[in-house]
Amino acid sequence: MSTETAVGRVPEGPTGRQIITFANVDAGTARREARDVARLDLVDARDIGTFESLEEVDADGVYFSALGIAVVDSAPEQLGSLSRAVGDSTSPIIAVEPEVYVHAFDTFESTGAADGVETADTAETGAVDEVDIAEVDTDDADDDADVAETYVDTPTYTWGLKAVRAIPPILHTAPWTGTGIRIAILDTGIDLGHPDFAGRVLASQSFIPGEPVHDGHSHGTHCAGTAAGIKAPAGGRRYGVAHHSRLLVGKVLSNSGSGTSGQILAGIDWAIRSGAHVISMSLGSRVNVGQPHYTYYEQAAVAALDAGSLIVAAAGNDGWSPVGAPANSPSVLAVAALDQSLQRASFSCVALNGGGGEINVAAPGVATYSSVPVAKGSYGVKSGTSMATPHVAGVAARLAQKTGFRGRALWREIERTAVPLPQSAQEVGKGLAVVPVRRMAVVAHPPTPWRPGPIIDPGSTDPGSTDPGSTDSGSTEPPTS
Amino acid sequence: MREERRRRVHVTMRGAGAAASGTPPPAPPLETLTEAGLDIDEHLDAIGVVTGWADDDAIDRLRAIDGVTVEFERGVQIAPPDAPVQ
After folding, report:
1. A278: helix, coil or strand?
2. Model confidence over A226-284: pLDDT tens digits?
3. Lower CB density within 10 Å: C or N end of chain B?
4. B14 touching A, CB under 8 A?
5. Contact B78/A218, CB-based, under 8 Å?
6. Hey, is A242 helix, strand or coil?
7. How much is the pTM?
8. Catalytic pick from A103, A172, A194, A219?
9. What confidence tens digit (pLDDT) does each residue in A148-165 have?
10. For residues A253 and A217, is the Cβ–Cβ distance under 8 A?
11. Nearest to B28 by CA among B65, B72, B71
């Protein structure tokens, strides 16, 4: 069993010990009950003074009389006896639960299993805890988008993930990671051999005659990565917004980047029939001032919404020009691109036409790091409203998981939760699309006084080490004993 | 002569979507489109769009059918992989 003194990774999840909660009885009764039920010898915490770990205590467990709680190392058969006592109304034992590791909020938190927010899919990353945690170095984040801030990539995540809060602000978690949501990427295909996409692509289909799904361009693999790239990519720098969503990949653009509206329509039709919750289209064609939307795209988008699929599309890269098609369809969510200062990128098209030609939301679309085919170097940086669009697709997936909303309700939720920006709606719509986050509880679990170091001393930046001197910290309460 | 003027078209069947909004006119049967001269390529029934080929005369006949919209297929082109903006 690992402890916090182990070198390296901070432990998470269950410790292997059990926490027994007693009814309001005196210490003697509680200790007798533990002995009678499960032959567990408990020592009263008041009798033994301070200690570093349970291993130092010559007993099966420690009873905290002020709390009416004992922490025990129990064998499986003892655990069975304890569980039976929970069901016995005459026993003062009212609960037996696994102890979990608890850490200072600014370095680590392990609440996934305890909160029940997300327990599926752990095999994918091998992590026990599925909750995204604020990073140590996020010192200036707060509830609102800090428009004075300039975002930069770090070695561990892209600026875009930080901006859309897939890397949550400090003291927040982003527990909804897109699990159970299917994102269709209609683009130039994908490199199915890229290790970051192993097991992530539910289905793929090429609508380009004579070309397999494989992405010979790089645009599609880049967009798929931004929407749903894994949490721990081989390249080290995390770039995927909804890292537990699955991908449906429709190749509607050739390896040279060309396609037709008919191939795109066929791709939308396929995505709807494949059960896509979000359809991301980083493509389009130029539209003139005064030009209406195309009926076929609008009909396809209405059908998608009716079927619970939300289409998000790139506004276009023609600068101060109308939003292109299909983003100009009233029932397609149009996405503008932002730079690292959360300003509209100069290339990002604007709302010059009504009737669907509006910008709906904005997202990071400058210097976006994501996956590219292995043959092209595995990772690369691109700019464009094409890069902003899959950020919104990932945000949509996370919101869809959190709320259960689909189609039009999901659209409204994306707009409702978007963070307003100083620029006009003509340029950035309702503002920056962001991932749903949750403020951390001040205390997620009762403190565990025999391991006070990591709880009362958040100063250490090395999560693998403990500071024995930390109990002297004057700013926090010493453990009661 | 006539063959050279055949063009790729998208025929949007109003009311034929999964559950179209509003109260559009009911979509005509596919045979109506064929009879009007549409050479059907694909019937995308999840989105209520039929793609195919038609010459100018057929397009005029198709446009006269109640409940359909006929538009020409368009090309889409994204930037090359190394372009500064994509």
Report:
1. strand
2. 999 999 999 999 999 999 999 999 999 999 999 999 999 999 999 999 999 999 999 99
3. N
4. yes
5. no
6. coil
7. 0.69
8. A219
9. 579 999 999 999 999 999
10. yes
11. B65
